[in-house]
């Protein structure tokens, strides 16, 4: 299968389109009052994103998650594939994946609203086992790390339940929220796209080598290493490592490491506590000119100009700082 995304359609009809829209409107209402950018709620695995205007393109890493869009639209790239998703769509990623994108449809009266549920693949595998969900037989070769499609009213109602918990005490939100999360993953697994969702989780969980390599690079992105050294460390051939890694993350291991380095350098520069030279060496670069060249290639501007642009762009500064 080509490309980093699996596109799926939900064949299950909602009771009525009007009812579904009312549920989407309820999500928008429940997130009213949250500021621009991405907000971490009191429930650790639940995030809310709101934008009152289209944003400029930014780069980042999509963590394993299930994100629904209640209003507005986003456009961007995951790997080399152009993606566009709006109200009623979901994006599910089962491995840390590099992505580039922007909010393409939003206004003050009709802001972009997205709600994201973080998960890990062990949680998915556990629920498959506990609920005795029958998964169709398939090979366990590494596959695309994300899928995009339509969610149904049952999924939406559980997200609404999580959002309503944010008005309760922290103790109740955390305890009940964990139960709702478990039910949400279950509902995703028995939905029309559940088999694809499960295939991602199981195939990648069984591809432990790639998962371990992703984790090692993420934890050691500033450590110099070649693909040959990485392959030897994980008992693989360099060609096999590159091919399997790219299938899952949409890019090769060294490119992935480079992306993490540049994203971290950008965060350091945004903190205002470090200069360009120090940031470059801090994330693992040995050549300042190479750092400046690759930074501009990824973000479109030299480091200091990019940071100035971000600070002058409403909503983008808090987004890229992870607030």
From TrEMBL:
Record's keyword annotation contains Cell division: no
Domain HTH araC/xylS-type: 211-309
InterPro entries documented for this protein: Homeodomain-like_sf, HTH_AraC, HTH_AraC-typ_CS, Tscrpt_reg_HTH_AraC_N
Record's keyword terms, sorted: DNA-binding, Transcription, Transcription regulation
Molecular function via GO: DNA-binding transcription factor activity; sequence-specific DNA binding
Any Pfam family the entry gives: AraC_N
SMART domains: HTH_ARAC
Name of the featured protein: AraC family transcriptional regulator
Organism lineage string: Bacteria, Pseudomonadati, Spirochaetota, Spirochaetia, Leptospirales
């Amino acid at each position: 299968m080509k490309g980093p995304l699996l596109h799926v359609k939900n064949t299950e009809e909602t009771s009525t389109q009007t009812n579904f829209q009312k549920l989407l409107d309820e999500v928008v209402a429940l997130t009213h009052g949250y500021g621009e950018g991405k907000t971490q709620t009191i429930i650790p695995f639940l995030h809310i994103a709101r934008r009152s205007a289209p944003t400029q393109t930014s780069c980042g890493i999509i963590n394993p998650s299930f994100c629904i869009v209640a209003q507005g639209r986003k456009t961007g790239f995951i790997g080399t594939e152009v993606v566009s998703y709006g109200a009623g769509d979901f994006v599910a990623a089962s491995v840390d994946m590099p992505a580039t994108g922007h909010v393409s449809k939003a206004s003050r009266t009709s802001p972009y609203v997205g709600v994201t549920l973080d998960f890990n693949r062990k949680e998915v595998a556990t629920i498959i086992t506990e609920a005795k969900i029958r998964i169709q037989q398939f090979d366990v070769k590494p596959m695309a790390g994300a899928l995009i499609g339509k969610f149904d009213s049952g999924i939406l109602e559980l997200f609404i339940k999580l959002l309503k918990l944010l008005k309760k005490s922290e103790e109740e939100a955390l305890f009940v929220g964990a139960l709702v999360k478990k039910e949400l993953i279950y509902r995703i697994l028995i939905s029309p796209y559940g088999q694809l969702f499960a295939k991602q989780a199981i195939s990648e969980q069984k591809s432990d080598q790639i998962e371990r390599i992703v984790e090692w690079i993420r934890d050691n992105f500033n450590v110099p290493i070649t693909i040959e050294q990485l392959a030897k460390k994980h008992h693989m051939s360099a060609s096999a490592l590159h091919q399997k890694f790219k299938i899952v993350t949409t890019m090769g291991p060294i490119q992935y490491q480079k992306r993490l380095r540049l994203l971290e350098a950008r965060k350091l520069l945004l903190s205002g506590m470090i200069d360009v030279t120090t940031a470059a060496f801090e994330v693992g670069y040995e050549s300042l000119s190479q750092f400046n060249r690759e930074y501009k290639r990824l973000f479109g501007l030299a480091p200091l100009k990019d940071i100035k642009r971000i600070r002058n762009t409403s909503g983008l500064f808090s987004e890229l700082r992870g607030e």
